[in-house]
From TrEMBL:
<dbReference type="InterPro" id="IPR050287">
    <property type="entry name" value="MTA/SAH_deaminase"/>
</dbReference>
<dbReference type="InterPro" id="IPR006680">
    <property type="entry name" value="Amidohydro-rel"/>
</dbReference>
<protein>
    <submittedName>
        <fullName>8-oxoguanine deaminase</fullName>
        <ecNumber>3.5.4.32</ecNumber>
    </submittedName>
</protein>
<dbReference type="Pfam" id="PF01979">
    <property type="entry name" value="Amidohydro_1"/>
</dbReference>
<dbReference type="InterPro" id="IPR032466">
    <property type="entry name" value="Metal_Hydrolase"/>
</dbReference>
<keyword id="KW-0378">Hydrolase</keyword>
<feature type="domain" description="Amidohydrolase-related">
    <location>
        <begin position="68"/>
        <end position="434"/>
    </location>
</feature>
<dbReference type="GO" id="GO:0102127">
    <property type="term" value="F:8-oxoguanine deaminase activity"/>
</dbReference>
<dbReference type="InterPro" id="IPR011059">
    <property type="entry name" value="Metal-dep_hydrolase_composite"/>
</dbReference>
């Protein structure tokens, strides 16, 4: 029997039928052939077989034959600005990669940030992402309104968006990695972060824009910025995000500087809790995982970036078994040049099977899909309104074409999506509004984005070369 929300005869409806459906709800409910009714910006009903008869104001009917419908993908970690520095420092570990690229990143400006955000968002949206996030932490003096330009790009693209307003105040002169001119003052970072939250954060159920407080990492921010950042976030009622336990070098750095590992350091500064999520969390021991599980601290798992930078294999199966919320992240496209989240479903599954403890039992196709949908919604604090296909939730969903020769001989649709090649997106809806049709963006010119991102990448390279 289909689940139904209250019907309103005045609302416009879209009916999708004859499709396989993976709801990713608490019971992993699936339909071999089912329907979804979108009413306004919400899912009104979902179930097996045809949609209910005599629905009012049906403005569109979509025949989903040959398609799998899933919740829209949720990206939990990214650095949009890196779209214009792809393909550099390709054989470096994290610390050497950062040292190589910080001098370039320190010269970005508002137009570069906007163009790069368009490129990053376009890659994700065209590949089934309906909720994106950007951890932007480079704010050079005189660069313009970087946060506003990124939010504008997301709004124009039509995706749901969280800006993690980052910051750095520990530069080279203080023992950090960023150049001195690439960081903010403690007071300036906190003041601008608060202003950004107050200007842009929307706490409503179907919010399209939210803001998190997000000092960059233990090796680029002061202890005081972490502590006061946590106090600021909790005073304003927003979430908190940072990098943690990404590499063995970071582990060594924290022990040398703070006399403890990253997890204990984060706990000492107020950075564990159900309102916090960490990027990477690769080097976690049993005690670290237990602390995350106890506090419900979330993790953004970025398998491709972790492999690109040789960071290691995160213990995702152990985290899930302990009850740690885990979502997927693209990470910045200077460490994951494809910039696509749907490929991370496959990479998360395959890379975690290389773990010698769990091997083939590490993750299965449905667990990977859950990481990219409901798990991401949990991590962003939005599992009550996105991340699964259920009546009353926001209408964020994707129709994947699994009838092409790349997938048609795989009987199970979820296996086809996760194990197979990247499936074409026939339609993607955010808040009930279609943003992708037949693998093309509806609210952005992909050819124009190709031109602008190339030009901005070249301009940034020239400015960097001039010193």
């Amino acid at each position: 029997m289909a689940a139904s929300a209250a019907q309103d005869g005045a609302v416009e409806r879209i009916v999708i039928e004859n499709c396989a459906i993976a709801t990713v709800d608490a019971n992993d409910t699936e339909y071999a052939s089912g329907h979804i009714v979108i009413a306004g910006n919400k899912i009104e009903s979902i179930g097996a077989g045809k949609a209910p008869e005599n629905l009012d104001n049906v403005v569109r009917r979509i025949d989903g034959t040959g398609h799998l419908v899933t919740p829209g993908l949720v990206n939990t970690h990214h650095h949009f600005y890196q779209w214009i520095t792809r393909g550099l420092a390709t054989d470096h570990n994290l610390f050497n990669w950062l040292v190589a690229l910080y001098p370039t990143w320190a010269r970005i400006d508002e137009q570069m940030a906007y163009s790069a955000a368009q490129g990053s968002l376009a890659a994700m949206a065209r590949g089934g992402v309906t909720t994106a996030m950007d951890h932007h932490y480079v704010y050079p003096k005189g660069a313009g309104d970087l946060s506003g330009s990124i939010i504008r790009a997301a709004s124009e693209m039509g995706v749901r968006f969280t800006l993690a307003r980052g910051s750095m105040d520990r530069s080279e002169k203080d023992g950090g990695l960023p150049p001195d001119h690439a960081v903010e003052t403690l007071e300036g970072a906190l003041a601008d972060t608060e202003a950004t939250v107050k200007k842009y954060h929307d706490a409503s159920f179907d919010a399209m824009t939210q803001v998190a407080v997000a000092p960059c990492s233990p090796f680029s921010v002061s202890t005081e910025l972490l502590k006061q950042g946590a106090e600021l976030a909790r005073r304003l009622g927003v979430r908190m995000h940072t990098h943690g336990s990404e590499t063995v070098e970071e582990e060594k750095f924290c022990h040398e500087l703070f006399g403890m590992g990253p997890t204990d350091y984060f706990e000492s500064t107020g950075w564990l809790g159900e309102d916090v999520w960490m990027a990477h969390s690769v080097h976690m021991n049993d005690s670290d995982i237990a602390a995350f599980a106890r506090t419900k601290t979330g993790v953004a798992h970025c398998p491709s970036s972790n492999a690109r930078l040789a960071a290691g294999i995160a213990r995702v199966p152990d985290m899930l078994a302990a009850g740690v919320p885990v979502g997927l992240g693209v990470d910045g496209t200077a460490s994951n040049e494809s910039g696509e989240l749907h490929t991370e479903l496959r990479n998360a599954l395959l890379i975690n099977r290389l773990n010698p403890v769990h091997r083939e039992a590490a993750l299965n196709a449905r667990q990977a899909l859950r990481l990219g949908t409901y798990g991401g919604a949990q991590v962003l604090g939005r599992s009550d309104n996105i991340g699964s296909l259920e009546a009353g939730k926001c209408a964020d969903l994707v129709l994947w074409n699994i009838s092409t020769f790349l997938h048609s001989s795989i009987a199970d649709p979820v296996t086809a999506l996760v194990f197979g090649a990247a499936a074409p997106v026939t339609a993607s809806f955010v808040n009930g509004k279609q943003i992708v049709e037949n693998n093309r963006l509806l609210f952005a010119d992909e050819d124009a984005i190709a031109v602008s991102t190339r030009e901005e990448a070249q301009r940034l390279a020239r400015i960097t070369a001039q010193g």
